[in-house]
Amino acid sequence: MTICFKGNSFKYETEAIMKLFLPVDNFRFVYDDVVTDGDFALISVKEENEFFRLEVSVSLDGKKAVMKDSIAKENGFSSCEFSLCRMLYKCLYKITGKAQPWGCITGIRPVKEVNRLIEKNMSREEIFSAMKEKYFISDEKLNLAYKTAVTQEKLLKIPKKSYSLYVSIPFCPTRCAYCSFVSHSMDSAQKLIPQYVEKLCKEIEITAEYAEKAGLTLDTVYFGGGTPTSLDSEDIDKIMKTVAKCFTLSTIREYTVEAGRADTITAEKLVVIKENGGNRISVNPQTMNDSVLKTIGRNHTAEQVREAFSLARKIGFENINTDLIAGLPSDSLDSFKNTVEEVLKLNPESITVHTLTLKRASSLFANAKQVSDDDVAAMVAYSVDRLCKIGYNPYYLYRQKNTLCNLENVGYAKEGKESLYNIFIMEEAQTILAVGAAASTKLCDAKSGKIERVYNYKFPYEYINRFDALMQRKNEIAEFYKKYPIE
Questions:
Q1: What domains, with CATH codes, occur in the chain?
Q2: What is the chain's alpha carbon radius of gyration, rounded to the nearest angstrom?
Q3: pLDDT number for residue 361
């Protein structure tokens, strides 16, 4: 498929629209030239008097569609991009006859748009009308996004000086076949762990100093990865004690540690987490089907998940999340339904349902049976209906590129058990100071809406070897709050 740009170079968003309909196609991009042979899409902007004249023409599998529009120059050239994307979506829909559940919205945070409209005191009907007209989103997904926004509404009233701390533990016992995160298996990373823990504790100390100078107050803590419980109990204890020493924990409302995989969870580790202030954990089966667990490279069984969950309850954890994935290779609709029902028997406080995302950095499941699009969509629909009916409300939602059927990831929780950190980071509503390899600090100013990011080195060995240079970037925190002082 050739995509031709004439008078513009709006490649990023238009390619995203093309992938909604042709997810596995390889595109060839041509600029200021027109290709009319075979399958092609022409994205054209032409200046004419006081207008930009827009044209989108698509030829696919012998079918053609053309749309034209005009935009006043006073709106600026950049305003052409979204109009072209809408036109391209309409052309592709006309040719394929397949509407996308999320329409032409390509961003990862659709709820953020709904939140903006709620802030304008728009009614549910007005919000639905505006979102459908602008993005062509289905009623089903609009309803999900709206429910999520309503759940968030009372939780997004955030104190001005508050921030969250993210601690990255980029190690796992083994790498899951679907995973694209920067994480290292314990076999290959074992020799790095002592140095990593030492540097991480030092970064925690330095970050705490910047937070104090900026006048910030800690609100939530989140240990993620990777799998934080891949570390032994002594290392977990050392890191958590460093957090307690450097930060005032009396102000925090939530302290999450992703226990994650059942084969890393022990009573000793859970006791360390509990004694150091952790009050929320995740036990993440992804599936309760043993054959699917084997397919994705998980070295534990569904029974071990049950045992780990029971152990966490006995130790006193009253806020436990479980993660599931719809669309795992070799899974089936009936098997996924059974997974949901088996997890509900555990009675977790929250359940996060991801839709499988295939990325270049993950295994390609070459030898695994792929789940049909219809079954993936049915899995996700089942989770929405089943969980909402029994009191699990959607509280955060995000989308990713290359997700099967262009679907979404949703966190559901019982009332009062929503993860504040997940909401804040997804809606970009609060500063997140992040430490560790592959961690990304997100500096947010609520008044101006300004957001700046500070990225850590991705790989543990790079994080360790270039630590001093990395710490110089921390000064960007101070510079940000000089520009946007907390009032």
A1: 2-96 (3.30.160.100), 110-142 (no CATH), 155-472 (3.80.30.20)
A2: 24
A3: 45
